[in-house]
Amino acid sequence: MRSDGSALNLRRWWRSAGFAWAGIRHAYRSQANFRIEVWAGVLALVVAALLRAPLAPVALACALVLGLELVNTALEAVVDLASPELHPLAKVAKDAAAGAVLIASAGALVVGLVVLLPPLWAWVGGWG
Ligand SMILES: Nc1ncnc2c1ncn2[C@@H]1O[C@H](COP(=O)(O)OP(=O)(O)OP(=O)(O)O)[C@@H](O)[C@H]1O
């Protein structure tokens, strides 16, 4: 009985992960900003790994930006569904969600500069 329940939960979790992955793929295909953020994050992580800089803050900053971009995409879809015509509240919702992504991106840029610049500087200095 117990193992049946666990197997069922695992199957349900796997199914939910499939839906989540479909959402990520949709955002990647339809949102140019999401594609830019994905590859900027990959680049930042590769540079951090090559410079032996701490990976955790860079990964966390990337996850925050990508996660908020997905929430922004979801909110845009819901607003377009609920309010296809222009409406001041639809504007507030979309602008606020876009603002959240902007703030997270600015924070990620600061994290990237603080974590990556010192080892990059030392590496460049090593060549001089
Ligand atoms: N239904 C609406 N009512 C009022 N203003 C809207 C509405 N839809 C969009 N806007 C305004 O236009 C801006 C751009 O909206 P849009 O849906 O094109 O998103 P976007 O920022 O271009 O995102 P993306 O390019 O990722 O789809 C919004 O931030 C908002 O200010």
Distance between the termini: 68 Å
Bound molecules: adenosine-5'-triphosphate
Query: How many domains, in number, for the residues?
Result: 2
Mean pLDDT across all amino acids: 94
The CATH architecture of the largest domain can be given as Orthogonal Bundle
Give the CATH level 1 class of the largest domain.
Mainly Alpha
Radius of gyration: 19 Å
The biggest beta sheet reads:
none
Which secondary-structure class do the elements indicate? mainly alpha
Percent of sequence in beta strands = under 5%
Order of helices and strands: HHHH
Give a count of the beta strands, DSSP E runs of length 2 or more: 0
Residues in helix, % = over 70%
Quickly count the helices.
4
Shape: flat
The CATH topology of the largest domain corresponds to Helix Hairpins
Unreliable spans? none
What this model shows, in words?
The structure is a single chain. This protein is mainly α. The chain folds into two domains: 1-30; 32-121, Helix Hairpins (Orthogonal Bundle). The chain has helices at residues 2-30, 32-50, 55-82, 88-127. It is flat, with a radius of gyration of 19 Å. The chain starts with a helix and ends with a helix. Adenosine-5'-triphosphate binds at residues 31, 33, 76, 83, 86-87, 90-91, 94-95, 98.
In short:
Keywords: ATP-binding, Cell membrane, Kinase, Lipid biosynthesis, Lipid metabolism, Magnesium, Membrane, Metal-binding, Nucleotide-binding, Phospholipid biosynthesis, Phospholipid metabolism, Transferase, Transmembrane, Transmembrane helix. The protein is 91% helix and 0% strand. It is mainly alpha-helical and 128 residues long.
